[in-house]
Amino acid sequence: MLSSVAHSLRLGCQGSRRSIATVISGNKTSKLVRERLKNEVEKMKSQFSGFRPSLVVLQVGDRDDSNLYISTKLKAAAEIGIDAKHVRLPNTATQDEVLRSIMSINENLSVHGLIVQLPLDSVNHINNELVTNAVSPEKDVDGLSCINAGKLSRGDLSDCFIPCTPSGCMELIRQTGVSVAGKHAVVIGRSKIVGAPMHDLLLWNHATVTTCHSKTPDLPEQVSRADILVVGAGRAEMVRGEWVKEGAVVIDCGINHIPDETRVSGKRVVGDVHYTSANQRAGFITPVPGGVGPMTVAMLMENTVQSAQRFLLNNQSRT
Ligand code: NAP
Ligand code: L37
């Protein structure tokens, strides 16, 4: 009875919908991160006579979405003062050729960060695991090698590179002022790039974490328990507002293109969360676009600057 009074008070006198959630802007937060990094790079440049952090983005093939994300990354790097190179191999490249290319970048002392943009677009069979593990852990700014992923899963957070998307999600959660410790967090998805590292990050920030996947029965029930919900399933608008706990923090990693005849392009981008209904229940919510996407780019820049700083530290102590 009491809880139903509290509930109707929250709903307001008319019993109408709850006020809408606070939107957490990835565009604004990523801009702040990029400005901070630009200052750090300027300091490095003046302290170490023209030294610049450097990043290589290796692409196999020619996927439209990868082309777009890579050009966003190159533009962000240029603005910050990171020297970024795009190395593109044709979709006919063999696994050996891809591995050889990675090895040669590993050996190049002037490169501090190397990512292989996934998914690979190749006519040949290429083992993703072999490729992500070939990147030297010291340059693995995507945090996808076993060494970095293993450290993260054990809670050695200060000693590894954290994958960019989950790292960006944590930054957005921090923006809300809601503390993670002691909260119940639910992650939908268990991929190596989003769900699994997100689980680890939340866990080691002291949340109690439930990770859901395609075999999880009763997803709405799991979602309804989340104080913090992070979704990376790749299913357009799958999470409905009615599932969401009132006041929850909702972070939507999904990037899905759905048909929209009102647009010139004939399509539009939506997340994995049904935004308009979730907006009525959540306390905080990220939009798509303009949420997690720009943060993924900003955190890649952050990892690259961190890698260059570690390089300088190691080289100084050797001299
Ligand atoms: P993925 O490798 O396809 O993984 C999807 C995960 O979601 C899997 O673990 C899968 O479960 C789970 N899943 C799929 N359908 C489900 C369902 N109906 N119920 C519960 N779980 C379900 O995808 P990903 O690379 O992690 O990407 C996920 C989404 O994030 C995509 O929309 C992608 O475009 C987006 N993304 C965004 C960014 C960004 O910067 N914003 C970066 C990377 C990815 P199983 O393991 O059982 O198959
Ligand atoms: N680091 N990121 C890294 N490594 C990889 O292997 N695949 C992959 C990866 N993913 C990635 O780059 N994702 C990504 C997704 C979205 C954006 C950038 C990077 C982005 O900028 N999204 C915008 C625009 C979305 C759109 O219109 O399509 C956004 O506002 O969400």
TrEMBL record:
Q: What is this protein called?
A: C-1-tetrahydrofolate synthase, cytoplasmic
Q: Name one GO cellular component term.
A: cytosol
Q: Which GO terms describe its molecular function?
A: formate-tetrahydrofolate ligase activity; methenyltetrahydrofolate cyclohydrolase activity; methylenetetrahydrofolate dehydrogenase (NADP+) activity
Q: Does the keyword ATP-binding apply?
A: no
Per UniProt, the keywords (alphabetical) are:
Hydrolase, Multifunctional enzyme, NADP, One-carbon metabolism, Oxidoreductase
Q: Which HAMAP family match?
A: THF_DHG_CYH
Domain Tetrahydrofolate dehydrogenase/cyclohydrolase catalytic: where? 24-142
